[in-house]
Amino acid sequence: MKQLLRPPRLAPGARVTVVAPSGPVAEERLQAGLDVLRGWDLDPVAAPHVLDRHGELDYLAGADVDRAADLQNAWCDPSVDAVLCARGGYGAQRMVDLLDWTAMRAAGPKVFVGFSDITVLHQAFATRLDLVTLHGPAAAGVDFIKSARAQEHLRATLFAPETVRTLTSGGGALTPGRARGVTLGGCLSMLASDLGTPHAHPGARGGLLMLEDVGERAYRIDRMLTQLLRTGWLDGVAGIALGSWAGCGPYDEVRAVLADRLGGLGVPVVEELGFGHGEGALTVPFGVTAELDTDTGTLTLDEPALS
Fold first, then answer.
1. Is the pLDDT of residue 172 over 90?
2. Catalytic residue at 201?
3. Domain parsing of the chain, residue ranges
4. pLDDT, average across residues 180-205
5. What is the reported pTM?
6. Do residues 72 and 30 lie in contact, with contact meaning Cβ atoms separated by under 8 Å?
7. Which of 94, 125, 137, 191 could form a disulfide with 144 if both were Cys (CB 3.0 to 4.6 A apart)?
8. Among residues 122, 212, 216, 291, which one is catalytic?
9. Which of 22, 116, 169, 244 is catalytic?
């Protein structure tokens, strides 16, 4: 698995566009998120359809074509330095095939941030644009708006990425060892549901796989991991870093499933690396070569996430 192209870091005054590729966005949270970004001396703007609602499907932030147009237009606008997702939810799978990847590649690299359902787009940006992306908090997410830790880590990643090259585990190791590879991954349920689609990673071979999820019971986590195993998608993975499992039930039950399904791979697996759902989530880049060390409980990037 190859390292991808790192987009340029941001500087004060940079223009960023907030888009909503998936679920609907609450206006008060959007405004609070924009205020945070303004406090960083950025120039944030909301895409035209961010506050839209789909008339019949109220779990979508407007029509598929409009959500795709917002992302497409922001990415291809030369005055925009970064595109941040307002939230996750559901809907990225419905709009990802409407994007013009040729035009987006021609527009050149820029920063892209999101998580949860945005895992679908992280995979597409990697396979279609060969671009490093940031698995980080949603700009209108309550866990971002109310968390100084999440805000500071994303801010450091955007402006001074050399200062946040190491993430440290708050837990232990499911399987001990050390491994090197290119980071990839995201929300487990989205990785499983994206299997076989045109934009999905063909597999985790040679990579350091980052996994997390929210609101999934232990047996469903088992089912999704088993699906990844049965398809061969996990064949040759170098190591695995686990994030949060918020709302997934007692962690000892989740941990038992993770150990059972991942332990047989014979690769290092570290727990509680601080990314994912929940307050204080850290930002981690996808597409960067890194080292995973379970003795120190660290993931260390070879170079900063952004150039």
1. no
2. no
3. 15-163, 166-301
4. 96
5. 0.97
6. no
7. 137
8. 212
9. 116
Mean pLDDT of the chain: 97
Query: Buried (b) or exposed (e) across 221-250, using 16+ Cβ within 10 A?
Result: bbebbeebeeeebbeebbbbbbbbbbebbe
Classify domain 15-163 at the CATH superfamily level.
Murein tetrapeptidase LD-carboxypeptidase, N-terminal domain (3.40.50.10740)
Output 170 or 231, whichever has higher pLDDT.
231
Residue 233 pLDDT > 90 = yes
* Residue 277 annotated as catalytic: yes
Q: Domain 166-301, what fold?
A: Glucose Oxidase; domain 1 (3.50.30)
> Is residue 116 annotated as a catalytic residue, yes or no?
yes
Of 49, 122, 153, 277, the active-site residue reads 277
pLDDT in tens, 250-297: 999 999 999 999 999 999 999 999 999 988 999 999 999 999 999 999
- Collect contacts of 28-37 with beta carbons under 8 A, ≥24 apart: 29/87, 29/140, 29/141, 29/142, 29/145, 30/86, 30/139, 30/140, 32/140, 32/145, 33/86, 33/138, 33/139, 33/140, 33/141, 33/144, 33/145, 34/139, 36/139, 36/144, 36/145, 36/151, 37/84, 37/139
The DSSP string of 216-247 is --HHHHHHHHHHHHHHTTTTT--EEEEEEEET
Q: What is the pLDDT of residue 55?
A: 87
